[in-house]
Amino acid sequence: MDNQVNTQGYYRPQLPMLPTVFRVVGKIKETHDTWTLELQNVDKTPLPSFHPGQFNMLYASGVGEIPISISGNFNSQDTLVHTIRDVGMVSHALCGLNTGDFVGVRGPFGTAWPMNKLERKNVIVVGGGIGLAPLRPAIYHLLNNRDDFERVAIAYGARGPEEILYPNQIMEWRSHLDLMVRVTVDAASASWQGQVGVVTTLIPRLNIDPANAAALVCGPEIMIRFAVRELLQFGLTPDDIWISMERNMKCGIGFCGHCQLGSKFICKDGPVFNFSEAEQFFKIKEL
Amino acid sequence: MANFIAEQLSSHPIFQGLPFVTISDMIGCASEKTFSRGGTIFLEGENANNCFILLSGSVDLSIHTHNKGPIVIQSLNGGDVLGWSWLFSPFIWHFDALAKEKTNAIQLDGQCIRKKCKENPELGFELMNRFSKIIMERLNATRLQLVDMYGQPG
Known about the structure:
heterodimer, A: alpha/beta, Elongation Factor Tu (Ef-tu), domain 3, seven-stranded mixed beta sheet, globular, B: alpha+beta, four-stranded antiparallel beta sheet, 4 helices, about 35% helix
């Protein structure tokens, strides 16, 4: 995959419509319907460089192609990591792949979490459901460069205890003394010893100064809406909040218009937007 | 003990800003309470006679279902207010509340507070206002739970 830098400073493939063949070299079952695939370039050429928050188009042979956020460590030199929820025909085919199977990859595409703008700030990461996957590379960045940031908090919500994404990793993150990790589920049986309640209820409890804080938010759109509302009430401004949006991306380069949202193409101008820029879209129903 | 309760009540957001004389007046309705891990605080259908200002620990609100047993619908922690059914007729608890861990609280006698509200409508209005805000927040959270936002898309 030969890359060049686009106008926003991110690398983009020189032949963006041409998939590169990757092989599945690892597969992890995350929840009952979510899998993480580790992919390696078949011709062993170096991986395209990517930034936290960007996505690839993954092609399941003979079935179709879908956008999937990169969920691995962007420092990794040899494997691309994608976490996929089995919710449709293509994602079902991708989740059904096994070690040794092939997958087509185009990308990386889109904008990234603004990690450099977060330096010397308190950082609040708010994720819901599979929305933790696009945030994970940003969390890796925060941990790998911990001294560049002030207080860091992760607030994560899932539907139930059995649907928590990356549970072992969350346990590991919790062991960091300089990282606040709060997890809640929408409902649980009495055997669950953790917090119950929607993810937005975690925000006012974070022991963090909102005056010098910024937030990264990813999850279902309705969760983003309410999480942003809570963050604003907590004391952040729209300029302090970045969100990752999802639409039906197809070409990945803003040509086909499938993912158009108002004047923006999610694949090219997003998926990561500053909330001050994206706020307008949330005010228009059925957009 | 009265000093400790006065300090806790006056610094809690729900009573913050109330005149000290009002807080002092409420102290007569308040007592310290500790629940051990797993202890029942109240059960659905019982008379709702109290309100609890949680100081530390954690409480699960749950609803019992015939086929799945108790389903936890909300966790409350130190700093939260537990219970508002004492404010509204018919003064009956709608859920079960169990201490998930050792929990310290200030218990307010609902009947006693209601009596004070009757005698002092200004206090009644203030408390109603402040508890309504909590009720609104919890209602919004419950509505989000109902949406099942992490369910299958489409």
